Every structure is written in C-alpha cells, then in structure tokens.
Amino acid sequence: MAKALQLPIIDLASPDRISTANSIRQACIECGFFYLINYGVEQELLKQVFDESKRFFSLPLEEKMKLLHRETRGYTPLYAENLNPSSSSKGDSKESFYIGPLESISSHSNLNQWPSEEVLPSWRPTIESYYERVLTAGKKLISLIALALNLDEDFFEKVGAFNPPMPFLRLIHYPGELGLSDEEIFGASAHSDYGMITLLATDGVGGLQACLVCRDKSKQPLVWEDVDHINGALIVNIGDMTERWTNCLFRSTLHRVMSTGRERYSMAFFLNPSADCVVECLESCCSELTPPRFPPVRSGDYLGERFRLTYGS
Ligand SMILES: O=C(O)CCC(=O)C(=O)O
Ligand SMILES: [Fe+2]
To answer: Which UniProt keywords apply (predicted)?
Structure first.
C-alpha cells in the first residue's frame, strides 16, 4: 500500500495574507499540492452538488449520450479519455461531465450543455452556484499565489488571465471497476493538469495518488503516495501553465487515480487563463544561469493542443 502524504493546509480566510502567501510558496515549490480550508463553500452546498452529480451519472446511458461532449462541454463516457497519451491502455475507467464558462462570465457560455429541467430540475442552478463560488475561491487563491511570487496581488488580472477566465468544472464518476489478474486499471492515468490551478473536491473514497519525488516527469521509477481526503478541505494542485510561468519553480506534480474496487465521485475545477493570455516566464523566475525553459505560449493554443492529445482527435 502507498504511504499517505502529509500535505500543507492553507487557510484561505486567514487575515495574515503575507504568512499565508509564504506557506503557499513553500507548498508550491516542495509539493505542487496542498489542502485548502475555509474556501467559502458551505458543506451543505457541496453535498447538494455531489448528490446532483450522482443523479446525472445514474441516468440511462442513452439519456447521458444526448449530452455527448462538444467543444469540451458535456458528457464523456467511460474509456473516452486517456490522460496519459504515451500509454497504450484502453482508456481511463471513468465518466465525466464538463461545464465551461457560465453566461455570467463569458459570451462562450452558450456552448454549455445541460440536462433537461424535466429530468433533473435542480441540477443547473446547483451546479452554477457551486461553479461561481469555487471560481471566487480560485481567484482569491491566485492573488495569494501572485504574492507568493513577490508580484502584485493583481498581477494575473493585469496580464489578462481573467479577462475573461476560462474555468472548467468537471464532475467525475469512477465506477470502481477492478482489473483481471495483474492488469492495472486506472480511474485516471498519470498526468499533470494543464491550467493555472485545480481545486478538487473528493467524496472520501480513496484512490488519488501523487508522485512528489519525481520532479523530472520522465524519470523512472515513479513513486506514488496517497493523497487522502480531509473533511472540509479541497485538494489544490498547480497546473502546467503555472509551471511554465514560474520556470518550474512551482511544480505541476504528476498524479493519478487508482481503481480501488469502490465507486468514487469527485469534482475538479480547472482554473485556466483567458484564451488570449500569453503565458511566459516571469522575470523573477529566470536569469542567465536559469534561462526560460519554455517559449511563450497563448493559453488557448496550449489548452487546445493538450485536449487534442487527451482525446486523440
Ligand atoms: O478525481 C480525482 O481525484 C482527480 C481527477 C484529476 O486529476 C483530473 O481530472 O485531472
Ligand atoms: Fe488531474
């Protein structure tokens, strides 16, 4: 059995922003993962969102297929996705539902798909309410991340990251299938996330693992440790675009979800910069000795390419 990680706990409501920013800096350099508490979503709302998610995934397949994903919004069936494109496995044992930017934040919102009100009457308002609350938490956290990088707290707003933001909420259901003999089945195979940060809500069923020792993602062997659920906390991890901005000072850590034989639900909120925002090495993160490792990239182009590799289209 894998060892459980002792990750730092960050209190989003702490009035001491400087000391919180320092703790975030240490967590992002050492782990790329931390727990977030007091993030402004009541446990009751969280429970309602998990309940709505279960209702959706319990619908007959033909009902879910009516909302098959288009433009990264809607339903992705079991095995539709392979988060580790270099592996030859049949795909990940999970189904999911993506919600892109809402009408309240972007004109792209009309691309979203929703289950019909007759089938799931309280689905859309519940999900939208969670989406808005977790976006507020995410933006607050990004301002602390800017402080942690010795930047102005509105640095990421000023470079256009939220003009408008491109967050995606993903509801995930892992059926908990077990493989035959020694075949390994992944709920989500090893990957790093693409965006700035991910705020993940889990239901208490284990399976999530991170590889903290493998700073170099291509280095073998990978050592996996469990990321346990803590009641009342979100799990936050740094994504690849933040790694690019910080020239690998802040780590986008490899993680995966093992299939444990138990059904599991989670909700990942991927906070991505606006499509036109250019992600380029921060001045404070490079020098003659440590030149930028990545060329500047437009966020929309980067995300498009990563999705293309994941879905093989
Ligand atoms: O479900 C989880 O615990 C993690 C999901 C994940 O890593 C992802 O969707 O990127
Ligand atoms: Fe992930």
So the answer is: Iron, Metal-binding, Oxidoreductase
| pLDDT value at 310 more than 90 | no
Is residue 3 in a domain? no
Tens digits of residue pLDDT in 55-87: 999 999 999 999 999 988 999 999 877 767 666
Instruction: Give residue 3's pLDDT.
Output: 84
289, containing H or E segment: none
Closest CA to 274 of 155, 159, 103: 159
Residue 33 within any structural domain of the chain: yes
pLDDT on residue 312: 64
Placement of tokens 């800017």 in the chain: 146
Total number of domains in the chain: 1
Token pair recorded at residue 63: 């009902």
ipTM of the complex as predicted: 0.99
**19: Cβ contacts below 8 Å, ≥ 6 apart:** none
For the Cβ of 256 lying below 6 angstroms from any atom of ligand 1, the answer is no
Task: For residue 59, give its domain range.
Answer: 9-311
CATH number at residue 238: 2.60.120.330
Q: Is residue 40 part of a domain?
A: yes
Average pLDDT (126-143) is: 98
CA 270 to ligand 1 center in whole angstroms:
10
| Helical segments of 149-194, H only | 155-158
24 domain-assigned: yes
